[in-house]
């Protein structure tokens, strides 16, 4: 445009003097600012990553998750017993307490609980992680669109989520899983059914957070600069409304693993001889009073998994808030 | 300082917000007449102060000027083009010429963006302004221009004080080298000591870059300090418009006189004697403004003609600037007594 003057440029002597409103430098960041001074540009995501690498909670959760993933894909690294081989089970030793060869003891059918727990990790973790990812992505994306545009888009998508909320979850999942039975493998069916019934929750949370964020002045300022809808949604609204979605999603992860057990119990989820933690918990429930251990061990693994993801979610949430760094 | 080149022409600007009833089938039962026929010009390098009490339409006017709201009617012409009618890429291009400094420095900066990202955002949106490699350097230069340390480019807004944040907001407004900056109460959220620094910064930048300001505020002394001309708004209309000295020393409209008589005087000598005009009642609802003159319901000069005939904003006999009152007469309130 035709602006003859250049706002920026060298040779503005009066600007050399620093005006001193009191500077508020947080004590803990002195070192790294020195390193970054005028050097690499920082952004929310690079700063968050820099911060995460220094959080013990994040490192710990990452290690746990890594171990669980290795366990899921190479279970034979952890145990020499193949639980799919019927000969490793011995009914006469059913509900045996832990011993040297079977450190978690044996279950109702005389199978090794440790080996089954290790082999059950894959199904449980795949179901938990993928269902969470799908609900977070689908619910989050629709939530941000619905919250930002409001109007007709919002009315329609909100009514659609209300329809999903009205479906009793187990009944709905049963219906979906039973309808598509045989057309996909049971794990994918469980993920599909749980994700379909789970996304409205993330949608609601994201939408509410976006509506709160979009009324703030910095969104108006971005519009005044000429920012488009995409930039406002993903540069301004998303980072400011991600925290509750992360928290709820990581908590839901455990819920999905448990819900899979309910579906297995009703005959549509993972079925024997396939193994999952949910299935093991469901199987051991009947004899819990005389033999608690076959239930306790997979339950502990489930809890550790959920805890690791919640810890990771918390660390990520904190790292994405510059005030908490 | 002001050359004759007009950068902004506002003509008969009207913004009505519909009042609706019903949930599914909305029907309009009225309208909030937030801005109701405002016209003015702004010249290059000039500052137009706009004062008025809460709810008189100052901020709505700013939003319409910034094309954040579409006017109900009227035009906002910037260098010959009507921004109110511009769409898409044309509107985006026009935005480079009119930018904004917002009131609250605590909510106007994204808490999850670094200062570098905040001030660099204009360059990312208008990629043609600065090539990618230059942007970071430009941001640092802007930080220097507004009196902040360029090394703080990687910090977040919460690490700055209110005054410093407002400087960041000003740097963001300057980035695209606009000719016009709309300042919507830029200092009302700041401490008095910081207000002066920010005002002085705005004045310095105006001289350096030949900026034209629309300066909206409810603090009359701040407006007088920075403005070349002042417009007084009441219920969506200008009641008086003129040079700052004319408005402050020779106010012609009763509302302006009442406003000025309420300005606190720091000098205890004689302030007890000065005239105080205390208005009765509250401003009427902008959904249902009075007929004729909008101020007549609270005016001590009101007569029948005020209810029947709307006074136009024009130069009245015996006064040197435009006012919208049938009985306009200059009366120095500030120095009276």
TrEMBL record, chain A:
Pfam families reported for this sequence: BPD_transp_1, OppC_N
CDD domains: TM_PBP2
This protein's record includes keyword Nucleus: no
GO cellular component, as recorded: plasma membrane
A Gene Ontology BP annotation from the UniProt entry: transmembrane transport
Leader sequence residues: none
Compartments, as annotated in UniProt: Cell membrane
Keywords: Cell membrane, Membrane, Transmembrane, Transmembrane helix, Transport
Transmembrane regions: 57-77, 125-151, 163-180, 186-206, 241-270, 295-316
Domain ABC transmembrane type-1: 121-313
Bilayer topology: Multi-pass membrane protein
Stretches the record annotates as Disordered: 1-41
InterPro entries from the UniProt entry: BP-dependent_transpt_permease, MetI-like, MetI-like_sf, OppC_N
Protein family per UniProt: Belongs to the binding-protein-dependent transport system permease family.
Protein name: Oligopeptide transport system permease protein
Organism the protein comes from: Nonomuraea pusilla
Taxonomic lineage: Bacteria, Bacillati, Actinomycetota, Actinomycetes, Streptosporangiales
Automatic annotation (TrEMBL), chain B:
Superkingdom of this protein's organism: Bacteria
Classification via SUPFAM superfamilies: P-loop containing nucleoside triphosphate hydrolases
GO biological process: one example: peptide transport
Coiled coil: none
InterPro entries cross-referenced by the UniProt entry: AAA+_ATPase, ABC_transp_ATP-bind, ABC_transporter-like_ATP-bd, ABC_transporter-like_CS, Oligopep_ABC_C, P-loop_NTPase
Entry GO MF terms: ATP binding; ATP hydrolysis activity
Family: Belongs to the ABC transporter superfamily.
Alphabetized PANTHER family for the sequence: D,D-DIPEPTIDE TRANSPORT ATP-BINDING PROTEIN DDPF-RELATED, TRANSPORT ATP-BINDING PROTEIN
Protein name: Oligopeptide transport system ATP-binding protein
Source organism (scientific name): Nonomuraea pusilla
């Amino acid at each position: 445009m035709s602006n003859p003057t250049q706002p920026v440029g060298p040779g503005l002597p009066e600007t050399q003097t620093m005006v001193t409103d009191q500077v508020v430098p947080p004590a803990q960041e002195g070192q790294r600012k020195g390193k970054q001074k005028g050097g690499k540009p920082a952004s929310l995501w690079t700063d968050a990553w820099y911060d995460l690498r220094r959080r013990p909670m994040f490192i710990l959760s990452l290690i746990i998750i890594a171990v669980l993933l290795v366990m899921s894909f190479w279970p034979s690294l952890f145990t020499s017993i193949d639980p799919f081989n019927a000969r490793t089970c011995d009914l006469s030793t059913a509900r045996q307490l832990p011993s040297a060869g079977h450190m978690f003891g044996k279950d109702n059918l005389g199978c090794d609980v440790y080996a089954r727990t290790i082999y059950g990790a894959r199904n449980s973790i795949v179901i938990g992680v993928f269902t969470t990812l799908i609900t977070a992505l689908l619910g989050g994306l629709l939530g941000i669109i619905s919250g930002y545009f409001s109007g007709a888009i919002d009315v329609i998508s909100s009514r659609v989520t209300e329809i999903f909320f009205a479906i009793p979850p187990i009944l709905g999942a049963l219906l979906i899983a039973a309808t598509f039975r045989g057309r996909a493998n049971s794990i994918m069916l469980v993920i599909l059914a749980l994700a379909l019934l789970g996304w409205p929750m993330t949608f609601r949370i994201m939408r509410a957070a976006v509506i709160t964020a979009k009324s703030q002045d910095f969104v108006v300022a971005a519009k005044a600069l000429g920012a488009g809808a995409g930039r406002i949604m993903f540069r301004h609204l998303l980072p400011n409304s991600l925290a509750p979605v992360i928290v709820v999603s990581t908590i839901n992860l455990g819920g999905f693993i448990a819900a899979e057990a309910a579906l297995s119990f009703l005959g549509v989820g993972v079925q024997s001889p396939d193994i999952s933690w949910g299935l093991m918990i469901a199987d051991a429930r009947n004899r819990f009073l005389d033999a608690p251990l076959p239930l306790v061990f997979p339950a502990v693994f489930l809890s550790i998994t959920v805890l690791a993801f919640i810890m990771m979610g918390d660390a990520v949430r904190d790292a994405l808030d510059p005030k908490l760094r | 300082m002001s050359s004759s080149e007009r950068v902004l022409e506002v003509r008969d600007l009207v913004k009505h917000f519909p009042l609706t009833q019903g949930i599914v089938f909305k029907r309009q039962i009225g309208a909030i007449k937030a801005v109701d026929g405002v016209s003015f010009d702004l010249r290059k390098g000039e500052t137009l102060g706009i004062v008025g009490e809460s709810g008189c339409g100052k901020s709505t006017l700013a939003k319409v000027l910034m094309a954040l709201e579409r006017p109900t009617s009227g035009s906002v012409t910037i260098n010959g083009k009507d921004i109110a009618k511009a769409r898409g890429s044309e509107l985006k291009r026009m935005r480079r010429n009119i930018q904004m400094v917002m009131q609250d420095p605590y909510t106007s900066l994204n808490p999850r963006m670094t200062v570098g990202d905040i001030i660099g955002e204009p360059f990312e949106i208008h990629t043609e302004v600065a090539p990618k490699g230059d942007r970071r350097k430009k941001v640092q230069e802007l930080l220097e221009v507004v009196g902040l340390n360029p090394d703080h480019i990687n910090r977040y807004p919460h690490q700055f004080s209110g005054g410093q944040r407002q400087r960041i907001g000003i740097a963001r407004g300057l980035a695209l080298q606009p000719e016009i900056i709309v300042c919507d109460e830029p200092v009302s959220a700041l401490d008095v000591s910081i207000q002066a620094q920010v005002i002085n910064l705005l004045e310095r930048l105006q001289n350096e870059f030949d900026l034209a300001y629309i300066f909206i505020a409810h603090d009359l002394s701040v407006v007088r300090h920075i403005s070349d001309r002042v417009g007084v708004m009441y219920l969506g209309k200008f009641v008086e418009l003129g040079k700052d000295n004319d408005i402050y020393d020779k106010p012609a409209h009763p509302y302006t006189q009442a406003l000025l008589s309420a300005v606190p005087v720091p000098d205890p000598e004689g302030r007890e004697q000065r005239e105080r005009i205390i208005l009765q009642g509250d401003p009427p609802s902008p959904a249902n403004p009075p007929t004729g003159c909008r101020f007549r319901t609270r005016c001590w000069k009101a007569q029948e003609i005020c209810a029947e005939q709307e006074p136009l904003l024009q130069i009245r006999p015996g006064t040197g600037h435009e006012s919208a009152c049938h009985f306009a007469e200059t009366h120095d309130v500030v120095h009276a007594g």
